[in-house]
Amino acid sequence: MATIQDPKALGTANLAQQEYLSIPISVFQLDHLAHVDLYCKFEGIASPVLYRSAAIPITLRDIEELRDKGHRALYVLSSDYAQLDRSLNESLHDILADSSIAPAERFAILQTAAAMEMDLAFHMIKCDRYVTLSQRIADQITHLLDGENLIPQQLFSVVRHDYYTYTHMINVAGFATLFADLLGIGDPQTRDQITKGALLHDIGKRFIPAKILCKAEALTEDEWQLIKAHPQRGYEDLCHRSDLTTEQLLMVYSHHERCDGEGYPVGLVREEIHPWARLLAIVDVFDAITSARPYRKPMTVSQGLSYLESQSGSHFDPEMVQCWTSAMRQN
Q1: Start and end of every HD-GYP domain (predicted)?
Q2: Which tens digit of pLDDT belongs to each residue from 82-94?
């Protein structure tokens, strides 16, 4: 099947933009994982440093020591990622069902396992494969998080916080699932629909060149208009489908609308914005501002929550902001 980007990249077009890839540390506690060189980041050193060669397997004791020192991730070379991805996906079903692994850590493992397939599907000319994949991953997320009484901070502490679109969409899907439960949306089928809608919300970015999405300098007016068009482009890409609900389409179309009418693409106000889109807007922005971007460093959790509160009632639904910020401050 043809792809928008160079087919030689085989789904790693975005992954290859950096030499090292961040992998949640919980992944490396698994048996039967491919042995690859592992790298670690240290304060004051720009690039990751070799921590364990492939010939010296990492142990559970190593992982605990790294955690005690504040490390949440290890790094692998992008050239080794496919090997790691294959071995992880071979065991994924059993991993997700393993109750001895904390739910948040299983979510981080799912995120890592899904990354390459999501990246490939996202950049295909037609969206069919990505939509189908989103339903499968949404089912896995809702099944994993349902009834676990997981607080958002636990999820935030283990997921990746980089600037790749697929990372962002899985993060947002996990946050949206927990947020829906916090807001009293108890029906599992409804939460599953919200999760899938969250996985699809930025699908319109498929049509934006990576050099614009990853640009470190200020955008030109034309580039900004292209960015602002992604909700409508995503909606147009999906609106003919019979396997998506109107509510899910509105999540895609309206997640950048703001309560004061200053959003886009239409400038809807308050109750004109569907509740699922209002829910999504909060976790979408929260994940974006607390993740690294080529043009800025991430905010801390405290800074991110303060920003949401500063925009409560103007950009965001005030009751939803209070619910999310209160939940994120729980330990």
Answers
A1: 143-331
A2: 888 888 888 889 8
